[in-house]
Amino acid sequence: MTGLPAILIFETATVTTILSAITAGLAHFVFQDGLNFLAQIWRYLNQPYQIGSLQVSVTRFVQGVLIFVVALVLSRTLSRLLKRSIEKRAYLDPGIRYTLGRITQYLIITVGALLALKAAFNLDLTSIAVIFTALSVGIGFGLQYIAADIASGFILLFERPVRVGDRVSIGTQEGDVQSINLRTTVLLTNDRVSVIVPNSKLVRDELINWSYGDPRARLAIHIGVAYNSNVDLVTDTLLKAAEGVDNVLKDPPAKVQLLKFGDYSLDFRLLVWTNRPRLHAQIRSDINYRIERLFRDAGIEIPFPQTELRLREGALRLDPGDKFILDKTGE
């Protein structure tokens, strides 16, 4: 009976040893096979493919994409940090802060794009120059308007005839400049509507910038009165209409001009100065309200177009149907 446990212990140890050996062999086989499989995948991913004169592999392409994504994130982050840093300097114009932030963002994206092309396709400067030459040919044929908008965007950022926050009028649109992008500029109107304007339109067309240069601006209000009006009374009334209006300066003082003798009216112009030119529409409205009220009190007539008909021969009479009939006999 004493020998039986020893035999069992021996047999158990033998089985354990055999299982350990089998497990180690399988593990070595699986590990070795797995390494060979991973090595094959890695060789496949690094295998270069010829595309024209360019060589690209999967790993290179992924590396280029990652570099470009990092450049995009870095450009936005650094641009935001630069704006926050410059905002602490109160003496710098907000337009300068915006321009520096945009230029920094575009510069980082450009460098990142070049590095991404270099990593993905192993391009040198000569190849990049060839690509840009091909792009310029395409621009010459069909993308000239987009190229003009992009070039105008850089002109707006560097020359700064229009800055973020300025009040501008272009054509029938008027609003505050919200952002100057690579191809377009966004205006926010008084109706809180965003108007997208191509940058080339701002550079090429006539544009009024109410916030540019001298903060003062002169506003002209045109008015016509009847020919039988007293011009001195009209002048005094117009000057009185400009007194006490919000945002109208006393110096320089208001001025009245008699411009011309019109077809049916005497045409005057009231000139006032303001240091809030972006409010010109409201200032004109306030003055027009006062002109209408003061003219009514003073008995000054604002004429409307009239047509005078003269007959050299005959006369006009009404028939029973209330129609005019020319009677050449004069009866």
CATH architecture annotation name of the largest domain: 2-Layer Sandwich
Order of helices and strands: HEEHHHHEEEEHEEHEEHEE
Low-confidence stretches: none
How many helices? The count is: 8
Termini separation comes to 162 Å
CATH topology of the largest domain, by name, is Alpha-Beta Plaits
Query: Radius of gyration from the CA trace?
Result: 41 Å
**Main beta sheet:** 5 strands, antiparallel
The share of residues in extended strands comes to 15-25%
Question: What is the total domain count?
Answer: 3
| Structural classification | alpha+beta
Shape type: elongated
CATH class of the largest domain equals: Alpha Beta
Estimate the helix proportion, in percent.
40-55%
The order of strands across the largest sheet is 6-5-4-3-7
How many beta-strand runs? 12
The average pLDDT is 77
Structural overview:
By secondary structure, the protein is an alpha+beta fold. The chain has 3 domains: 89 residues, Orthogonal Bundle (Helix Hairpins), CATH 1.10.287; 49 residues, SH3 type barrels (Roll), CATH 2.30.30; 118 residues, Alpha-Beta Plaits, CATH 3.30.70.100. The chain is 52% helix and 19% strand. The protein contains 8 helices and 12 strands. The strands form 4 sheets. The protein has a 5-stranded antiparallel β-sheet with strand order 6-5-4-3-7. Helix 4 packs across helix 5. The longest helix is centred in the first third of the chain and has 44 residues. The protein is elongated, with a radius of gyration of 41 Å. The termini are far apart.
